[in-house]
Structures are given as C-alpha cells and as structure tokens.
Amino acid sequence: MGLETQLRPRARHVLVVAAPQDSQANELVNALRESGLNVILANNELLASQADEVGVCILVLHPEQWNETPAITTALQRNPPYMIPLLAEAMPLPEGPWTTEPISLKEPVSETAQELVTHITDYFQSLPEEMAEINETPSQPEVTAQQRETIPQAQPPTRKILPANVGCITTFCLFLAIALAVALPTFFLTRHGSDQTMYQSMKTSDSLLTHPYSASVPGSSCDLGGARWGVGQYFKAPTTAPGTPAAQTIFDSSTEMICKPDGLQITKKDHFNYYATIVFEDRDQNALPQHFKTQITATIISSSQQASVELGVRMQNSARNGSYNSGYGNNTFTVKENGQWEVRRISNTSSAVEAILASGSVQPAKTFTLSAEVNGPLMIFAINGNIVSTVIDTTYQNSHGISFGIADPAAKSPLSALFSHFTYTPLLDTHQSTDELIATATAQANKNHHTP
Asked: What is the distance between the alpha carbons of residues 79 and 61, in angstroms, rounded to a whole number?
C-alpha cells in the first residue's frame, strides 16, 4: 500500500543550481540552510526550471562542464530575476543575465556561504515590503538522497484583519478578476511564441483551468503547453524514538523523470512505499473548479505484482495552512498490476491512507487508463473506460491539483512507470447541493444494482 508524498510549496527563495554530483554545492546548500535561508538544490532540469520563480538563483559553474550540465543551461534559459555566478575555479564568465559580479567558491565552503548570506540578506532587505513578505513564506528545500533530514517547523504566515470597507473593495476586485478570466483566456491559451518554455510570460492560471488541457507527455520540461507541474518531495515517516513526534517529515529526492517520445518515465529509486508523485496544478494556488474530469494512462515498466499506479483528484495545498505538518491530503484512485483497485482518502497530516472508500478488481495488466469525474464531493472513477466506483466524500472541499504516480511496497530495487495522454476538462456546474448529489448517486447505484 503506497503512501503519499507532498508537493513542495511554491515560495520564492534561494535556488542553488549545480551538477548532480557536485559535493561542494551540496556542502554549500547545507551551510546556507544552517544560516536560516530557505534553499532549494536544483541538480536536474525539472527543479532548475523554477529559476524564474525564486528570489535568488545561484549557479555553481565549473569550467568546460557548465554548458554540458542540463540544470545550469535550463536555469540560464529561464532568465532569473536575480542571478549570482559562483565560480568553482577561475574561468571566463559565461554570457548570461547576471545580476552580480562573479563570486569564487573558496575552501572552507562555509566562508563562501557566509559571503553569500550577507549578499542575499542585504538584497532581500532592499525589496519592497510586499516582496519581502513573499520571501518570508515557508519553503520546502530540495536535497539529495544523501542529505535527507527532518524539516524544521515552519511558522504560520501572519493573517491580517481587513477593515469592513476593504471587504467591499475585495468583492469588486474579485468580480473584475472573474470578468477578465472569462474575456481573456482565448488570447492567452492560443498565443504560442518561439519561446514557449519561458513560463514567466504565461501566468494565466485561471484561463488554463477553465479550459480543457491535454499533454501527451506530461510533466515539466516535457509538456510545453503552459501548465504548472509539481513534484512530490517529502512525506511523513513514523518514528519510535523516545521524545520525538509520532511522525517526522522526510525529504525525498529519489524520484527521477525522463521525457520519452511516448510519455513521461518516472523512476522511484528509494522509499518505494511512498508514491513518486507528479502534480498538475494551478499557478496562483487557487482551487480547481468544483466540477472537472481527468484521465491519465499508466504503464508499469519494472516492479512486482504489488506495484500500483494512482490518480489523485483532491490534492491539498500546504502553502495555504503555513505548515509542513499538513498538505498531504488527497482522494486517490489506485490500481495494482494484479488488478486490485481502491478509492482512498489520504490523511492531510500524516500522508497515510485514512480510509478506503471503495475497492474491487479488474483483469491484471501492465497498462491502465485511469479516469475520474469530480462533481463537488461526488467522484466517479473508471478503469480503461469502464466505471468501477462512484463515491461521495466531503472531507476535502477543494482540490489544488491533480496527481499521478507509482509506488511498490514490495520493491527491492528501483521501479518505473510511463505516464502519457493526460487530460483535464472543466465541467458545467450541476448546481446541486451535497444532499442532492448523494440522492442522485444513490438512485443511480440502485438502478445499476437492479439492472439485469
């Protein structure tokens, strides 16, 4: 039974971009974190593609190697707003949108870290107040498999009480935003310049979410259609050590992704009991519509008969509650290679299965097409086009992403699956209350039960 990993919150902090086996970069990241900075280590293209979304981007450059490092070349293409070149050795500075003069990576690395901390802190303090608040939002750092550690407790963001008249202004702004979302989506969804991979020019999450979207090869760096793709990067692990919490939050960088012509290949190299998760999500952390349908095709490549692929439709957002102790919640639809399927509710605080809402079996196979239709709390799940379950669960009111992934608690070596033909389609509002939805679902179930 696979458990859930949580999506990294989308805070704007410090991104250190380096080659995968750069030990100095690993040491630097640890030193920067010890100083109190929120740091993400980006040693692959997927993480480096976030370079334009962080406050500061540091590129660790080695002569005759930097231009052959996909993470570094990807970060340069993103045109980060504040980019620092960090030279591991003396070398000519590559052409790029550098914000500062080069800084030499000296030994001990802690000295270089202190120089960077002073520089970055001064920069953050120079930002306008609203930008500084963004950079104070808690962020989940990315680490390598050799550097997993317990995440420190994050402080909830300050909540401001608005005066009564601000509520009217907010209502008017909301009305105006909705009007713009209706009028502008066609323009934003149909503009495809020569630089589609530059996400900073495509901040139209509302228009994307209110129109059908598809990706034959899903995932960041594979899909260039403008969607925001996330990766599950940490999970709750039980602990029995005295004086420690019942569960600790663990970083997990064991998920690897490769763009293939026929799909996104996901490989889980460790923590096999926890799902390697990819998430289709909105950019501004607004919830998805209450009514939508979605589909993904999954082919299990290497695993045991206990391997399972999943489709999640109620991804919860940790950034909304300001704590790393929640945000794991989801309603997921899983099917094993042996044909056993389950509809689950995942705990929002422990990443464990909180309830099995339905279960059954289909013919064993390596490839399954999982689909779901969501109408508020009513969810309809199908395998290979055949409906297998209709459930109602009111635990999670909104969805902040659609997830898919693979896990195998019986695995002893890395496992892989190929995911392709992702679709998302918003549906018309049924305008039915929860009680009406329950009555409709019950009537349909009874009809199906009595049909010869």
From this structure: 16
In the beta sheet, which residues pair with residue 298?
Answer: 368, 419
Query: Among candidates 138, 145, 149, which has minimal Cα distance to 326?
Result: 138
What local confidence, expressed as pLDDT, does residue 420 receive? 97
pLDDT band at 46 (very low <50, low <70, confident <90, very high): confident
How far is C-alpha 151 from the chain's CA centre?
A: 17
Residues 6 or more apart whose CB falls under 8 angstroms from that of 246 comprise: 238, 239
Give the model confidence (pLDDT) of 156-186 as tens digits: 222 222 233 333 334 444 444 444 343 333 3
DSSP-assigned beta bridge partners for residue 280:
229, 402
Residues 6+ apart with CB under 8 A from 74: 45, 48, 49, 51, 221
Contacts of 435 (CB under 8 A, 6+ apart): none
**Residue 135: per-residue pLDDT:** 42
CA-based nearest residue to 328, from 385, 393, 247: 247
Half-sphere exposure of 435 (CA within 13 A, CB side): 0
Question: Which one, of 395, 365, 209, 176, lies nearest residue 286 by Cα?
Answer: 209
Query: How far is it, in rounded angstroms, from Cα 328 to Cα 113?
Result: 33
Please give the domain boundaries of the chain with CATH numbers for all domains.
6-143 (3.40.50.2300), 213-450 (2.60.120.560)
Contact 34, 60 (CB under 8 A): no
Element (H, E) at 99: none
CA-to-CA dists, residue 57 to 68, 74, 84, 94, 336, angstroms: 19, 12, 6, 15, 41
Expressed in percent and rounded to 5, the helix, strand and coil fractions of the chain are 25, 30, 45
* 266: number of Cβ within 10 Å: 26
* Spacing of C-alpha 213 from chain mean position: 17
What mean pLDDT do residues 264-278 have?
91
What confidence tens digit (pLDDT) does each residue in 64-115 have?
889 889 999 999 988 888 999 999 999 988 888 899 999 999 899 999 999 9
Handedness of CA 356, 362, 365, 366 (dihedral sign): negative
Q: How many residues does the chain have?
A: 452
Distance (Å, whole) CA 15 – CA 142: 9
Q: Whole-model pTM? A: 0.57
The SS3 call for residue 445 is: helix
Nearest to 246 by CA among 236, 256, 238, 254: 238
